[in-house]
């Protein structure tokens, strides 16, 4: 998914790597908290998310697999939580920001393996993530 954003890639990269708990202040109806295990902003650190998706409280624990500050890219692999087990065998979130003329484009990607053919595609989760990204952008541009 792609989203035109007003904030630069460095803003999103900083929040997602060094200050992810700020997202709970920006989107409290969607994200209730984020705990960090390990050192902030380094490959191998883990983020434990508490969020509400489709009216249901959920948790997800993910590990940072790749960071590319120059290209504002973050790759996180889900290792525990509500996305795994009954739905997906594996789930990975990829976020990066690329220039688009004088503006910026947020690119949100998921890689996943469904547990079986009856499991739906994660469109609800992607919409959720897109909306959180929009709220982050509005919040940062209004400061």
UniProtKB/TrEMBL annotation:
Annotated InterPro entries: Bet_v_I/MLP, MLP-like_ligand-binding, START-like_dom_sf
PANTHER family, A to Z: MLP-LIKE PROTEIN 423 (PTHR31907)
Segments forming domain Bet v I/Major latex protein: 4-143
Any Pfam family: Bet_v_1
Single GO BP term: defense response
Protein name: Bet v I/Major latex protein domain-containing protein
Gene3D superfamilies per the UniProt record, alphabetical: 3.30.530.20
């Amino acid at each position: 998914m792609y989203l035109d954003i007003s904030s630069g890639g460095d803003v999103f990269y900083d929040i997602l790597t060094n200050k992810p708990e700020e997202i709970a202040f920006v989107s409290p109806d969607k994200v209730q908290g984020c705990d960090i295990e390990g050192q902030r902003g380094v490959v191998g650190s883990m983020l434990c998310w508490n969020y509400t998706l489709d009216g249901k409280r959920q948790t997800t624990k993910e590990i940072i697999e790749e960071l590319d500050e120059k290209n504002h890219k973050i790759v996180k692999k889900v290792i525990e939580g509500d996305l795994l087990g009954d739905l997906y065998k594996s789930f990975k979130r990829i976020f990066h920001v690329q220039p688009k003329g004088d503006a910026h484009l947020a690119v949100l990607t998921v890689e996943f393996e469904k547990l079986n053919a009856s499991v739906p595609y994660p469109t609800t989760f992607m919409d959720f993530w897109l909306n959180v990204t929009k709220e982050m952008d509005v919040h940062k541009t209004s400061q």
